[in-house]
Write the C-alpha coordinates for this entry.
Amino acid sequence: MISKNKLKYIHSLELKKNRMAEQVFVAEGNKLVADMLPAYSCKWLLAKPCWMATQGDIKAEELIVAEEEDIRKASFLKSPQDVLAVFRYPDWKLEEANPKEELVLVLDGIQDPGNLGTIVRLADWFGIEHLVCSPDTADIFNPKSVQATMGALAHVKVHYTDLTDYIRQWKAAGVPVYGTFLDGDNLYERTLTRNGLLVMGNEGNGVRPEVAALADERLYIPNYPQERETAESLNVAIATAILCSEFRRRLL
Amino acid sequence: MISKNKLKYIHSLELKKNRMAEQVFVAEGNKLVADMLPAYSCKWLLAKPCWMATQGDIKAEELIVAEEEDIRKASFLKSPQDVLAVFRYPDWKLEEANPKEELVLVLDGIQDPGNLGTIVRLADWFGIEHLVCSPDTADIFNPKSVQATMGALAHVKVHYTDLTDYIRQWKAAGVPVYGTFLDGDNLYERTLTRNGLLVMGNEGNGVRPEVAALADERLYIPNYPQERETAESLNVAIATAILCSEFRRRLL
Protein backbone atom coordinates (compact mmCIF):
# COMPACT_ATOMS: atom_id res chain seq x y z
CA MET A 1 0.00 0.00 0.00
CA ILE A 2 1.41 3.39 -0.97
CA SER A 3 0.52 6.67 0.73
CA LYS A 4 -1.11 9.59 -1.05
CA ASN A 5 1.90 11.75 -0.29
CA LYS A 6 4.24 9.30 -1.94
CA LEU A 7 1.98 9.09 -5.00
CA LYS A 8 1.95 12.86 -5.25
CA TYR A 9 5.74 12.95 -4.95
CA ILE A 10 6.17 10.35 -7.71
CA HIS A 11 3.81 12.20 -10.05
CA SER A 12 5.68 15.44 -9.39
CA LEU A 13 8.78 13.81 -10.90
CA GLU A 14 7.30 14.08 -14.37
CA LEU A 15 8.64 17.66 -14.28
CA LYS A 16 12.33 18.38 -14.67
CA LYS A 17 12.37 21.15 -12.06
CA ASN A 18 11.07 18.73 -9.43
CA ARG A 19 13.54 16.02 -10.45
CA MET A 20 16.36 18.58 -10.26
CA ALA A 21 15.24 19.84 -6.86
CA GLU A 22 14.99 16.33 -5.44
CA GLN A 23 17.84 14.80 -7.49
CA VAL A 24 15.75 11.69 -8.19
CA PHE A 25 13.93 10.12 -11.15
CA VAL A 26 11.47 7.31 -11.89
CA ALA A 27 12.12 4.04 -13.73
CA GLU A 28 9.56 1.33 -14.34
CA GLY A 29 9.23 -2.21 -15.55
CA ASN A 30 10.36 -5.63 -14.40
CA LYS A 31 13.49 -5.89 -16.52
CA LEU A 32 14.39 -2.19 -16.59
CA VAL A 33 14.38 -1.76 -12.81
CA ALA A 34 16.34 -4.97 -12.33
CA ASP A 35 18.95 -3.68 -14.82
CA MET A 36 19.16 -0.28 -13.10
CA LEU A 37 19.41 -1.48 -9.50
CA PRO A 38 23.13 -2.35 -9.58
CA ALA A 39 24.00 1.04 -11.12
CA TYR A 40 21.91 3.51 -9.10
CA SER A 41 21.09 4.21 -5.51
CA CYS A 42 17.39 3.45 -4.98
CA LYS A 43 15.24 5.69 -2.75
CA TRP A 44 11.92 3.84 -3.03
CA LEU A 45 11.11 0.58 -4.67
CA LEU A 46 7.43 -0.15 -5.16
CA ALA A 47 6.83 -3.73 -6.27
CA LYS A 48 4.43 -6.63 -6.24
CA PRO A 49 5.54 -9.63 -4.21
CA CYS A 50 5.75 -11.71 -7.42
CA TRP A 51 8.52 -9.44 -8.76
CA MET A 52 10.35 -9.26 -5.43
CA ALA A 53 10.42 -13.05 -5.35
CA THR A 54 12.39 -13.07 -8.64
CA GLN A 55 15.13 -10.85 -7.17
CA GLY A 56 17.83 -11.59 -4.66
CA ASP A 57 18.63 -9.06 -1.97
CA ILE A 58 17.04 -5.79 -3.13
CA LYS A 59 19.03 -2.69 -2.20
CA ALA A 60 16.58 0.17 -1.61
CA GLU A 61 16.23 2.75 1.16
CA GLU A 62 12.55 1.87 1.35
CA LEU A 63 10.88 -1.20 -0.05
CA ILE A 64 7.12 -0.87 -0.54
CA VAL A 65 5.09 -3.99 -1.13
CA ALA A 66 2.46 -3.01 -3.69
CA GLU A 67 -0.73 -4.27 -5.20
CA GLU A 68 -1.59 -3.87 -8.86
CA GLU A 69 -3.71 -0.84 -8.00
CA ASP A 70 -0.81 0.95 -6.25
CA ILE A 71 1.46 0.58 -9.24
CA ARG A 72 -1.26 1.64 -11.64
CA LYS A 73 -1.79 4.82 -9.64
CA ALA A 74 1.92 5.63 -9.48
CA SER A 75 2.83 4.68 -13.05
CA PHE A 76 3.57 6.92 -16.04
CA LEU A 77 3.03 3.99 -18.42
CA LYS A 78 -0.04 2.90 -20.34
CA SER A 79 0.64 -0.70 -19.34
CA PRO A 80 2.24 -0.65 -15.90
CA GLN A 81 4.24 -3.71 -14.91
CA ASP A 82 5.05 -5.12 -11.46
CA VAL A 83 7.61 -2.59 -10.25
CA LEU A 84 8.36 1.13 -10.14
CA ALA A 85 11.46 2.67 -8.61
CA VAL A 86 12.60 6.13 -7.57
CA PHE A 87 16.35 6.32 -8.13
CA ARG A 88 18.83 8.96 -6.98
CA TYR A 89 20.76 10.92 -9.60
CA PRO A 90 24.14 9.40 -10.42
CA ASP A 91 27.38 11.30 -10.02
CA TRP A 92 28.55 11.38 -13.63
CA LYS A 93 31.71 13.36 -14.35
CA LEU A 94 32.26 14.90 -17.76
CA GLU A 95 36.02 14.55 -17.31
CA GLU A 96 35.62 10.77 -17.51
CA ALA A 97 34.74 11.03 -21.19
CA ASN A 98 37.97 10.88 -23.17
CA PRO A 99 37.45 11.38 -26.91
CA LYS A 100 41.19 10.91 -27.44
CA GLU A 101 40.67 7.24 -26.61
CA GLU A 102 37.02 6.54 -27.34
CA LEU A 103 34.11 7.60 -29.54
CA VAL A 104 31.92 10.13 -27.68
CA LEU A 105 28.45 11.06 -28.95
CA VAL A 106 27.59 14.77 -28.89
CA LEU A 107 23.91 15.75 -29.10
CA ASP A 108 22.97 19.27 -30.10
CA GLY A 109 19.40 20.12 -29.13
CA ILE A 110 17.64 16.74 -29.43
CA GLN A 111 14.07 17.56 -28.40
CA ASP A 112 12.21 14.29 -28.20
CA PRO A 113 12.73 12.32 -24.96
CA GLY A 114 12.01 9.07 -26.81
CA ASN A 115 14.70 9.82 -29.40
CA LEU A 116 17.19 10.56 -26.63
CA GLY A 117 16.40 7.31 -24.82
CA THR A 118 16.66 5.33 -28.06
CA ILE A 119 20.06 6.91 -28.74
CA VAL A 120 21.28 5.90 -25.27
CA ARG A 121 20.10 2.35 -25.97
CA LEU A 122 21.97 2.10 -29.26
CA ALA A 123 25.05 3.78 -27.76
CA ASP A 124 25.15 0.93 -25.27
CA TRP A 125 24.91 -1.62 -28.09
CA PHE A 126 27.87 -0.04 -29.85
CA GLY A 127 29.95 0.39 -26.71
CA ILE A 128 29.73 4.17 -26.48
CA GLU A 129 29.92 5.08 -22.81
CA HIS A 130 29.51 8.85 -22.86
CA LEU A 131 26.96 11.20 -24.42
CA VAL A 132 27.63 14.93 -24.18
CA CYS A 133 24.50 17.06 -24.74
CA SER A 134 23.77 20.75 -25.16
CA PRO A 135 21.83 22.17 -22.19
CA ASP A 136 18.66 22.44 -24.34
CA THR A 137 18.68 18.71 -25.22
CA ALA A 138 15.84 16.70 -23.65
CA ASP A 139 16.45 15.55 -20.07
CA ILE A 140 17.63 11.96 -19.88
CA PHE A 141 15.71 11.55 -16.62
CA ASN A 142 12.38 12.39 -18.23
CA PRO A 143 10.31 9.20 -17.63
CA LYS A 144 9.90 8.76 -21.41
CA SER A 145 13.66 8.88 -21.96
CA VAL A 146 14.36 6.49 -19.13
CA GLN A 147 11.85 3.97 -20.48
CA ALA A 148 13.21 4.22 -24.05
CA THR A 149 16.74 3.36 -22.86
CA MET A 150 15.47 -0.12 -21.91
CA GLY A 151 18.04 -0.29 -19.15
CA ALA A 152 21.03 1.01 -21.15
CA LEU A 153 21.27 3.85 -18.60
CA ALA A 154 22.97 1.33 -16.37
CA HIS A 155 25.99 1.52 -18.71
CA VAL A 156 25.83 4.84 -20.58
CA LYS A 157 26.50 8.25 -18.99
CA VAL A 158 24.80 11.42 -20.20
CA HIS A 159 26.38 14.84 -19.60
CA TYR A 160 25.09 18.35 -20.27
CA THR A 161 27.42 21.22 -21.10
CA ASP A 162 28.07 24.07 -23.51
CA LEU A 163 29.00 22.31 -26.75
CA THR A 164 31.08 24.96 -28.48
CA ASP A 165 33.48 25.21 -25.54
CA TYR A 166 33.57 21.45 -25.13
CA ILE A 167 34.23 20.67 -28.78
CA ARG A 168 36.75 23.48 -29.18
CA GLN A 169 38.81 22.20 -26.30
CA TRP A 170 39.06 18.66 -27.72
CA LYS A 171 39.59 19.88 -31.25
CA ALA A 172 42.58 21.86 -30.00
CA ALA A 173 43.88 18.59 -28.56
CA GLY A 174 43.77 16.99 -32.01
CA VAL A 175 40.56 14.99 -31.61
CA PRO A 176 38.58 14.46 -34.87
CA VAL A 177 35.09 16.01 -34.88
CA TYR A 178 32.53 14.19 -37.05
CA GLY A 179 29.15 15.54 -38.07
CA THR A 180 26.43 14.68 -40.62
CA PHE A 181 25.53 17.16 -43.31
CA LEU A 182 23.46 16.99 -46.47
CA ASP A 183 26.51 18.20 -48.40
CA GLY A 184 28.92 15.90 -46.53
CA ASP A 185 31.03 13.06 -47.93
CA ASN A 186 29.78 9.51 -48.47
CA LEU A 187 30.03 7.89 -45.03
CA TYR A 188 30.91 4.50 -46.47
CA GLU A 189 34.00 5.84 -48.25
CA ARG A 190 35.51 7.94 -45.47
CA THR A 191 38.19 6.90 -43.02
CA LEU A 192 36.63 6.59 -39.58
CA THR A 193 38.65 6.50 -36.38
CA ARG A 194 37.91 4.54 -33.22
CA ASN A 195 37.96 7.74 -31.19
CA GLY A 196 36.64 11.28 -31.55
CA LEU A 197 33.45 13.31 -31.22
CA LEU A 198 30.39 12.41 -33.29
CA VAL A 199 27.94 15.33 -33.37
CA MET A 200 24.22 14.79 -34.08
CA GLY A 201 21.74 17.65 -34.38
CA ASN A 202 18.20 18.68 -33.56
CA GLU A 203 15.28 16.81 -35.20
CA GLY A 204 14.11 19.76 -37.27
CA ASN A 205 17.07 22.06 -37.65
CA GLY A 206 20.11 19.81 -37.44
CA VAL A 207 23.31 20.98 -35.83
CA ARG A 208 23.53 24.67 -34.82
CA PRO A 209 25.76 26.70 -37.16
CA GLU A 210 28.31 27.54 -34.46
CA VAL A 211 28.62 23.86 -33.58
CA ALA A 212 28.60 22.74 -37.23
CA ALA A 213 31.50 25.10 -37.93
CA LEU A 214 33.65 23.00 -35.58
CA ALA A 215 33.14 19.71 -37.45
CA ASP A 216 36.12 18.88 -39.65
CA GLU A 217 34.83 15.49 -40.82
CA ARG A 218 31.58 16.16 -42.72
CA LEU A 219 29.72 12.91 -43.35
CA TYR A 220 26.59 12.03 -45.32
CA ILE A 221 24.48 8.85 -45.21
CA PRO A 222 23.84 8.09 -48.90
CA ASN A 223 20.25 7.45 -49.86
CA TYR A 224 19.43 4.89 -52.55
CA PRO A 225 19.13 5.04 -55.44
CA GLN A 226 21.20 8.19 -55.29
CA GLU A 227 19.71 9.94 -58.29
CA ARG A 228 16.29 9.93 -56.61
CA GLU A 229 15.21 13.26 -55.17
CA THR A 230 12.20 12.12 -53.21
CA ALA A 231 13.64 10.81 -49.96
CA GLU A 232 13.49 13.48 -47.35
CA SER A 233 15.58 12.81 -44.30
CA LEU A 234 16.14 10.34 -41.49
CA ASN A 235 15.03 10.45 -37.89
CA VAL A 236 18.00 11.51 -35.71
CA ALA A 237 18.09 8.24 -33.75
CA ILE A 238 18.08 6.32 -37.04
CA ALA A 239 20.92 8.42 -38.45
CA THR A 240 22.91 8.01 -35.24
CA ALA A 241 22.47 4.23 -35.42
CA ILE A 242 23.69 4.02 -39.01
CA LEU A 243 26.75 6.11 -38.18
CA CYS A 244 27.60 4.11 -35.07
CA SER A 245 27.16 0.84 -36.96
CA GLU A 246 29.54 2.08 -39.63
CA PHE A 247 32.15 3.30 -37.12
CA ARG A 248 32.09 -0.08 -35.39
CA ARG A 249 32.02 -2.19 -38.55
CA ARG A 250 35.47 -0.89 -39.42
CA LEU A 251 36.82 -2.22 -36.12
CA LEU A 252 35.41 -5.75 -36.33
CA MET B 1 -14.67 27.79 -39.74
CA ILE B 2 -15.24 24.05 -39.28
CA SER B 3 -18.55 22.51 -38.22
CA LYS B 4 -18.99 20.45 -35.07
CA ASN B 5 -19.97 17.46 -37.17
CA LYS B 6 -16.76 17.62 -39.15
CA LEU B 7 -14.70 17.92 -35.96
CA LYS B 8 -16.46 14.88 -34.56
CA TYR B 9 -15.78 12.97 -37.77
CA ILE B 10 -12.09 13.86 -37.73
CA HIS B 11 -11.70 12.82 -34.08
CA SER B 12 -13.44 9.52 -34.84
CA LEU B 13 -10.58 8.72 -37.24
CA GLU B 14 -8.24 8.09 -34.34
CA LEU B 15 -9.82 4.62 -34.27
CA LYS B 16 -8.93 2.03 -36.89
CA LYS B 17 -12.49 0.69 -37.19
CA ASN B 18 -13.73 4.15 -38.16
CA ARG B 19 -10.88 4.68 -40.62
CA MET B 20 -11.65 1.29 -42.18
CA ALA B 21 -15.38 2.01 -42.40
CA GLU B 22 -14.79 5.40 -44.01
CA GLN B 23 -11.60 4.44 -45.89
CA VAL B 24 -9.96 7.73 -44.92
CA PHE B 25 -7.19 8.91 -42.59
CA VAL B 26 -5.77 12.14 -41.18
CA ALA B 27 -2.42 13.76 -41.96
CA GLU B 28 -1.16 17.03 -40.48
CA GLY B 29 1.56 19.57 -40.86
CA ASN B 30 2.67 22.09 -43.44
CA LYS B 31 5.31 19.96 -45.12
CA LEU B 32 3.71 16.57 -44.58
CA VAL B 33 0.39 17.50 -46.17
CA ALA B 34 2.14 19.20 -49.09
CA ASP B 35 4.17 16.00 -49.65
CA MET B 36 1.08 13.79 -49.46
CA LEU B 37 -1.21 15.82 -51.76
CA PRO B 38 0.26 14.58 -55.06
CA ALA B 39 0.00 10.94 -53.94
CA TYR B 40 -3.44 10.74 -52.31
CA SER B 41 -6.98 11.82 -53.07
CA CYS B 42 -7.96 14.49 -50.52
CA LYS B 43 -11.46 14.58 -49.05
CA TRP B 44 -11.13 17.63 -46.78
CA LEU B 45 -8.32 20.08 -46.47
CA LEU B 46 -8.47 22.38 -43.48
CA ALA B 47 -5.87 25.13 -43.67
CA LYS B 48 -5.00 28.65 -42.69
CA PRO B 49 -4.86 31.17 -45.55
CA CYS B 50 -1.10 31.62 -44.93
CA TRP B 51 -0.48 27.95 -45.81
CA MET B 52 -2.83 27.99 -48.79
CA ALA B 53 -0.92 30.96 -50.18
CA THR B 54 2.28 28.88 -50.28
CA GLN B 55 0.63 26.20 -52.44
CA GLY B 56 -0.37 26.22 -56.08
CA ASP B 57 -3.68 24.74 -57.13
CA ILE B 58 -4.80 22.58 -54.16
CA LYS B 59 -6.65 19.43 -55.21
CA ALA B 60 -9.22 18.62 -52.52
CA GLU B 61 -12.90 17.69 -52.62
CA GLU B 62 -13.54 20.34 -49.99
CA LEU B 63 -11.25 23.15 -49.02
CA ILE B 64 -11.97 24.65 -45.59
CA VAL B 65 -10.39 27.97 -44.70
CA ALA B 66 -9.47 27.66 -41.04
CA GLU B 67 -8.39 29.79 -38.16
CA GLU B 68 -5.81 28.70 -35.61
CA GLU B 69 -8.61 27.69 -33.25
CA ASP B 70 -10.22 25.35 -35.84
CA ILE B 71 -7.00 23.48 -36.45
CA ARG B 72 -6.25 23.24 -32.75
CA LYS B 73 -9.67 21.67 -32.17
CA ALA B 74 -9.28 19.17 -35.00
CA SER B 75 -5.64 18.25 -34.43
CA PHE B 76 -4.15 15.09 -32.91
CA LEU B 77 -0.84 16.89 -32.34
CA LYS B 78 0.50 18.68 -29.29
CA SER B 79 1.72 21.50 -31.52
CA PRO B 80 -0.73 21.80 -34.42
CA GLN B 81 0.53 23.53 -37.55
CA ASP B 82 -1.36 25.39 -40.28
CA VAL B 83 -3.00 22.48 -42.10
CA LEU B 84 -4.81 19.20 -41.49
CA ALA B 85 -6.07 16.92 -44.25
CA VAL B 86 -8.41 13.95 -44.49
CA PHE B 87 -7.10 11.69 -47.26
CA ARG B 88 -8.77 8.72 -48.93
CA TYR B 89 -7.15 5.30 -48.65
CA PRO B 90 -4.84 4.49 -51.56
CA ASP B 91 -5.34 1.46 -53.77
CA TRP B 92 -2.10 -0.42 -53.03
CA LYS B 93 -1.75 -3.84 -54.62
CA LEU B 94 0.39 -6.50 -52.97
CA GLU B 95 1.15 -8.01 -56.41
CA GLU B 96 3.16 -4.89 -57.25
CA ALA B 97 5.83 -5.88 -54.72
CA ASN B 98 8.34 -8.08 -56.51
CA PRO B 99 11.03 -9.46 -54.18
CA LYS B 100 12.63 -11.19 -57.19
CA GLU B 101 13.72 -7.76 -58.37
CA GLU B 102 13.76 -5.57 -55.26
CA LEU B 103 14.28 -5.65 -51.51
CA VAL B 104 10.92 -5.90 -49.72
CA LEU B 105 10.59 -5.28 -45.96
CA VAL B 106 8.43 -7.75 -44.05
CA LEU B 107 7.18 -6.70 -40.60
CA ASP B 108 5.95 -9.34 -38.18
CA GLY B 109 3.79 -7.86 -35.42
CA ILE B 110 5.35 -4.41 -34.96
CA GLN B 111 3.17 -2.88 -32.24
CA ASP B 112 4.23 0.74 -31.90
CA PRO B 113 2.71 3.13 -34.48
CA GLY B 114 5.71 5.44 -34.14
CA ASN B 115 8.15 2.61 -34.89
CA LEU B 116 6.11 1.68 -37.96
CA GLY B 117 6.10 5.26 -39.25
CA THR B 118 9.84 5.60 -38.63
CA ILE B 119 10.45 2.38 -40.58
CA VAL B 120 8.42 3.73 -43.52
CA ARG B 121 10.52 6.89 -43.42
CA LEU B 122 13.82 5.01 -43.53
CA ALA B 123 12.51 2.62 -46.17
CA ASP B 124 11.94 5.65 -48.36
CA TRP B 125 15.51 6.84 -47.73
CA PHE B 126 16.89 3.48 -48.81
CA GLY B 127 14.61 3.14 -51.83
CA ILE B 128 12.43 0.34 -50.47
CA GLU B 129 9.00 0.76 -52.02
CA HIS B 130 7.00 -2.02 -50.39
CA LEU B 131 6.43 -3.09 -46.79
CA VAL B 132 4.48 -6.31 -46.20
CA CYS B 133 3.06 -6.58 -42.67
CA SER B 134 1.34 -9.26 -40.61
CA PRO B 135 -2.33 -8.40 -39.93
CA ASP B 136 -1.50 -7.70 -36.26
CA THR B 137 1.13 -5.07 -37.11
CA ALA B 138 0.16 -1.48 -36.18
CA ASP B 139 -2.03 0.32 -38.72
CA ILE B 140 -0.04 2.61 -40.98
CA PHE B 141 -3.01 5.02 -41.06
CA ASN B 142 -2.93 5.53 -37.30
CA PRO B 143 -2.31 9.30 -36.93
CA LYS B 144 0.91 8.59 -35.00
CA SER B 145 2.24 6.37 -37.79
CA VAL B 146 1.33 8.87 -40.49
CA GLN B 147 3.11 11.69 -38.65
CA ALA B 148 6.22 9.59 -38.03
CA THR B 149 6.58 8.87 -41.77
CA MET B 150 7.29 12.57 -42.31
CA GLY B 151 5.76 12.33 -45.78
CA ALA B 152 7.47 9.10 -46.86
CA LEU B 153 3.99 7.59 -47.28
CA ALA B 154 3.89 9.47 -50.56
CA HIS B 155 6.47 6.96 -51.89
CA VAL B 156 6.27 3.78 -49.79
CA LYS B 157 3.38 1.29 -49.92
CA VAL B 158 2.31 -0.74 -46.90
CA HIS B 159 0.46 -4.05 -47.33
CA TYR B 160 -1.14 -6.40 -44.77
CA THR B 161 -1.33 -10.13 -45.34
CA ASP B 162 -0.65 -13.54 -43.80
CA LEU B 163 3.13 -13.70 -43.66
CA THR B 164 3.73 -17.45 -43.68
CA ASP B 165 1.79 -17.90 -46.93
CA TYR B 166 3.41 -14.84 -48.43
CA ILE B 167 6.98 -15.78 -47.55
CA ARG B 168 6.51 -19.43 -48.49
CA GLN B 169 5.31 -18.50 -51.96
CA TRP B 170 8.37 -16.32 -52.69
CA LYS B 171 10.77 -18.74 -51.07
CA ALA B 172 9.49 -21.41 -53.43
CA ALA B 173 10.29 -19.01 -56.28
CA GLY B 174 13.92 -18.85 -55.13
CA VAL B 175 13.80 -15.50 -53.35
CA PRO B 176 16.25 -15.14 -50.39
CA VAL B 177 14.59 -14.60 -47.01
CA TYR B 178 16.67 -12.57 -44.51
CA GLY B 179 15.94 -12.25 -40.81
CA THR B 180 17.79 -11.04 -37.71
CA PHE B 181 18.49 -13.43 -34.87
CA LEU B 182 20.65 -13.28 -31.77
CA ASP B 183 22.37 -16.46 -32.96
CA GLY B 184 22.65 -15.27 -36.58
CA ASP B 185 25.79 -14.57 -38.62
CA ASN B 186 27.74 -11.31 -38.54
CA LEU B 187 25.81 -9.00 -40.88
CA TYR B 188 28.94 -7.27 -42.09
CA GLU B 189 30.49 -10.51 -43.33
CA ARG B 190 27.51 -12.01 -45.17
CA THR B 191 26.72 -11.74 -48.85
CA LEU B 192 23.66 -9.55 -49.26
CA THR B 193 21.59 -9.42 -52.44
CA ARG B 194 19.84 -6.44 -53.96
CA ASN B 195 16.53 -8.31 -53.86
CA GLY B 196 14.69 -10.53 -51.40
CA LEU B 197 12.56 -10.39 -48.27
CA LEU B 198 13.96 -8.81 -45.10
CA VAL B 199 11.90 -9.88 -42.08
CA MET B 200 11.82 -7.78 -38.88
CA GLY B 201 9.97 -8.88 -35.75
CA ASN B 202 7.88 -7.60 -32.87
CA GLU B 203 9.45 -5.19 -30.32
CA GLY B 204 9.33 -7.60 -27.42
CA ASN B 205 9.20 -11.08 -28.91
CA GLY B 206 10.97 -10.80 -32.26
CA VAL B 207 9.85 -12.80 -35.25
CA ARG B 208 7.18 -15.48 -34.65
CA PRO B 209 8.62 -19.03 -34.70
CA GLU B 210 6.61 -20.07 -37.78
CA VAL B 211 7.87 -17.02 -39.66
CA ALA B 212 11.43 -17.37 -38.32
CA ALA B 213 11.54 -20.95 -39.61
CA LEU B 214 11.22 -19.61 -43.15
CA ALA B 215 14.31 -17.37 -42.96
CA ASP B 216 17.29 -18.98 -44.67
CA GLU B 217 19.66 -16.05 -44.20
CA ARG B 218 20.07 -15.54 -40.45
CA LEU B 219 21.78 -12.23 -39.70
CA TYR B 220 23.05 -10.60 -36.52
CA ILE B 221 24.07 -6.98 -35.91
CA PRO B 222 27.33 -7.28 -33.96
CA ASN B 223 27.56 -5.23 -30.80
CA TYR B 224 30.85 -3.69 -29.75
CA PRO B 225 33.07 -4.64 -28.13
CA GLN B 226 31.83 -8.17 -28.79
CA GLU B 227 33.06 -9.76 -25.60
CA ARG B 228 30.82 -7.42 -23.58
CA GLU B 229 27.69 -9.03 -22.23
CA THR B 230 25.90 -5.94 -21.04
CA ALA B 231 24.27 -4.54 -24.17
CA GLU B 232 20.73 -5.69 -24.37
CA SER B 233 19.05 -5.23 -27.72
CA LEU B 234 18.17 -2.63 -30.31
CA ASN B 235 14.87 -0.94 -31.04
CA VAL B 236 13.28 -2.55 -34.12
CA ALA B 237 13.38 0.64 -36.20
CA ILE B 238 17.07 1.07 -35.32
CA ALA B 239 17.86 -2.53 -36.28
CA THR B 240 15.93 -2.13 -39.55
CA ALA B 241 17.92 1.01 -40.36
CA ILE B 242 21.28 -0.66 -39.78
CA LEU B 243 20.28 -3.60 -41.97
CA CYS B 244 18.97 -1.41 -44.78
CA SER B 245 22.08 0.76 -44.65
CA GLU B 246 24.25 -2.34 -44.95
CA PHE B 247 22.22 -3.81 -47.85
CA ARG B 248 22.52 -0.52 -49.71
CA ARG B 249 26.18 0.12 -48.91
CA ARG B 250 27.08 -2.98 -50.90
CA LEU B 251 25.41 -1.50 -53.98
CA LEU B 252 27.06 1.92 -53.90
In short: The radius of gyration of chain B is 20 Å. DSSP finds ten helices and ten strands in chain B.
